Amino acid sequence: MPEPQQPGGRAPFGARLAAAVGRLGPLCVGIDPHPALLASWGLSDDAEGLRRFSATVLAAVAGVAAALKPQVALYERHGSAGIAALEDLLADAREAGLLTIADAKRGDIGSTMAAYAQAWLGEGSPLAADAVTLSPYLGFESLRPALDVAAETGRGVFVLALTSNPEGASVQHVGGDASVARRVVEAATAENRRYSGADRGEGSVGLVVGATVGDAIARLGLDLAAMGGPILAPGLGAQGATAAAMRETFAAAYPRVLATSSRDILRAGPDEREVRASAERTLEGLRG
Ligand SMILES: O=c1ccn([C@@H]2O[C@H](COP(=O)(O)O)[C@@H](O)[C@H]2O)c(=O)[nH]1
């Protein structure tokens, strides 16, 4: 059955991501223009450096990565010129047919959340990506405006559930059988069930679960395989997770995982062919 089309003529994000992963494999390349990386690429730590860095990564990984994940903070640190560089990257990626996930980790009371939703997911917004990362710290339901705008526009969200940093455990693991992480997973599962495609794992409400979380998924009783949407897994490479360990960590949910790696791939630059080769090696490992 053909997927319903949303405004902008696009199919739902979950279906588009599943198709890209089916075609290319489960790799998302993070674009994190850290000052040290810009310097090692011989680029200036300014908006022009960001533009050249972003354009090189986009050209290098097109046809290898299923998605790109620009880290919004590293564009924001350059003010309005940095945001303009991000807008241009998002437009260029769209043109090149690459899915984008804006790693903005937004979350606020509902009335303010509506503005974030318009900015990152709204039709015609210059900052609209295919999906955005969200923080549920103000309560999962506070994210409702973003969930609704994403459903209306065929875009998606990735909600932080178990983050890759060690400090995350002090909040996310708390609560025993009803841990914070488990509540987030259950809320995302319920949300995906409201829309089509969840039985195939093609829901548009994804979760962020770090590749570094080890046995926490099993220990906290998280049923990620039945979640109905994609799992964005940062932590591969620079934060120590390996592709082999990820298979063990995610077990039955591994087919839902979109692994994301930034510094480990980006440090191969500035040569576009080297960045591409590094992304290809990472993808090969994920395919096993
Ligand atoms: O739990 C999380 C959520 C997001 N991130 C982001 O992913 C990249 C990771 O970069 P690497 O260079 O591959 O370590 C970065 O933008 C983080 O902000 C995360 O690491 N963990």
CATH fold category name: TIM Barrel
The rounded distance between the terminal residues' Cα atoms is: 32 Å
Secondary-structure content class: alpha/beta
CATH first level: Alpha Beta
Q: Within the largest sheet, what's the order of strands?
A: 1-2-3-4-5-6-7-8
Shape: globular
CATH superfamily: Aldolase class I
- Give the total of beta strands: 8
Number of helices: 13
CATH architecture: Alpha-Beta Barrel
**Regions with little confidence, pLDDT below 50 for 5+ residues:** none
Sheet having the most strands: 8 strands, parallel, barrel
> Radius of gyration, rounded?
18 Å
SSE arrangement, N to C: HEHHEHHEHEHEHHEHEHEHH
Number of domains: 1
Average predicted confidence as pLDDT: 96
Pfam families: OMPdecase
GO molecular function: orotidine-5'-phosphate decarboxylase activity
Pathway: Pyrimidine metabolism; UMP biosynthesis via de novo pathway; UMP from orotate: step 2/2
Catalytic activity: orotidine 5'-phosphate + H(+) = UMP + CO2
What does this entry show, briefly?
With 288 residues, this protein is an alpha/beta fold. The chain has 13 helices and 8 strands.
Structure report:
- The chain is an alpha/beta fold.
- The chain has a single domain, classed as Aldolase class I (TIM Barrel), CATH 3.20.20.70.
- The protein is built from 13 helices and eight strands.
- Strands 1-2-3-4-5-6-7-8 form an eight-stranded parallel beta barrel, surrounded by seven helices.
- α6 runs parallel beside α7.
- It is globular.
- The mean pLDDT is 96.
- GO terms for molecular function: orotidine-5'-phosphate decarboxylase activity.
- It catalyses: orotidine 5'-phosphate + H(+) = UMP + CO2.
- This is Orotidine 5'-phosphate decarboxylase.
- Its EC number is 4.1.1.23.
- Pathway: Pyrimidine metabolism; UMP biosynthesis via de novo pathway; UMP from orotate: step 2/2.
